[in-house]
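Supplementary notes (optional reading)

For those who missed the lab, this is the record we used. Protein: Glycoside hydrolase 97. Length: 659 residues.
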Amino acid sequence: MTIKKFYILCAALFCFMAVSAQQNISVSSPDGKLKFLLKITPETVSYEVNYKKQLLVENSLLGFSFDNGEFGSNLKTGKVRRKSIDETYELVVGKVSSARNHCNEMIVPLQEKEAPGRLINLVVRAFNDGVAFRYEFPEQEGWNSYVMYDEKTQFRLNGNPMALLMYLPGYINTHEGVYTHTEYDKIAKKRLIEMPVTLEFDNGIYMSITEAAVRDYAGMYLVKEKNGFAGKLSPRLGQEKIKVEINEFPHRTPWRVLSVADRVGGLLETNILTSLNEPCKIEDTSWIKPCRTTFTWWNGNVVPDSTFSPGNNFETNKYYIDFAARNGLDAHGIYGYAETPWYYDDNFNFGWAGPNADITRPIPCLNMPRIVEYAKSKGVGIHLWVHWRPLYDKLEEAFALYEKWGVKGLMVDFLDRDDQEMIRIQEEILQAAARHRLFIQFHGSSKPSGLTRTYPNEFTREGTLNYEVCKWDTLVNADHDISVPFTRLLAGPTDYHLGGFRALPRSEFKIQYVNPYVMSTRCHMMAMYVVLENHLTSLCDTPMAYEGQPGFEVLRTVPGTWDEMHVPLAEFNKYVTVARRNGTDWWVGTLNDGTARTLNLKLDFLGEGEYRAEIYTDAPDAERNPNHLSKEIRTVTRKDKIELPLAVDGGAVLRISKL
């Protein structure tokens, strides 16, 4: 044997030994198009994701850093358990009323070969429209608690996809910002990135990265590092090292979710997040119904020029209760006035509650007992704003009082964190609220994670830059709006301060804190109610801005929960059309960015027979007069097409009723 042949033989033998030392375990989606491959070597545990044989995520490491050492190397696998899941479940509120949970699951036990011999199960589920994985900590001898410094989960992307994402300044924040649309290799490194992040790969494949079932754990963010995206957990308040602390097994992490589709509309249609959450924990859900409410903070508590002043008084609230009663709204929102909440707060500051703030003590000038009785006489509920800290101090006492008053629900504000403690607090609030038949709207909060299946009294969350900003800045316009369906909306219900009915063209927009303007067309503003999933329909403008105005009937009647949804038209970060069915009626909303265009909408999502279609489109002069719209009523069938002329910053709305 020549020396050359000897070296070739040695190299081949080395490669064979290296390959044989690697263990590959995979699971595929029911349709076989999506594959998750787990690769275990003596040094690492990693995974990759393929869709239609195209590599999307490559060689991404998994592991943990605990106070008693690293976990992720020198592991052995136990017996892999597999099963197929195919079930249908009902949602009390949601973008569909009945969803299918269809996937293939594998559970891979990963155990250290040497002491301390810790065991963690990796659970992977492969759906036709995504993959998800999480870690389970089973009961075991010698290890029944942990202090985690890091979850070392990577998302290394293959190629150079386009990315749509939001940078954040730090872990304590309002989860609000503008979106950046850029190539993957141009994403800033070492900056905190909010999830979901959405990616456009070659061949028209789209993927979104987020998480599901975030409970008793810290929220996750992404940071671009040398080897791609790395997951970063929100640390415990007041320090940086400890991320999660668990004192009892079994325990489970949230799901790491990669939604995948061959058209961007497929990302909006998936029910993967609710499928990954536990069934409803509320025994009696008959009281949980979507709500339409005023929210006077946005407009400045404006009242007519009359015999009373706007403020924390009975007359101001009576004016809005009467408006709600006239127009079939379910509730009137009470937050206070100026910087003074409706309850006693020695700090007189919405964002920073004083040490003696007491949410069970309404300020006397408000005359809360009289407001409650008057609202009840008009068939209108009460929707209260509260700061989370004084609420949490008196959770049970406050909720019992609010239930006695007949309050429908609360906006719980200024959470500004998603560390493990705050995640626990949010779930405690939801549990206590359910005991007293109250819905919850989280503001100044992190994104949702599908928990509306488990606690359907969580109606909506903020967690995105929205129209409140029009009171003090110019950041929120149609170009920002169109990013939301492809990012934040993918995580779940989205509260956006909807309903501004006074629009100005961008070139003429001016900032006003009271009676604020918006800079998108009337049809665009109406379409937001259909495009965004949101079980709390807020009408944030004044009665004078609404009554007698074209399109107000849409805001008064658009449902807050749905039976079915489709996305017939969408181009990534440019426009989107969402069709939603409630009963026999279809509602279709289209959002456009800052470029005028015309779309042709096929109505093939309709059933057989004839329908009555109310069609709202931008008026021909909407670019100059964005409050103008055109309305047409016609008979349609599923074979028809509707032409949608979309103005700059425009939109369209259809209400289609079965004849």
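If you only remember one thing from this example: Residues 3-20 form the longest helix (18 residues).
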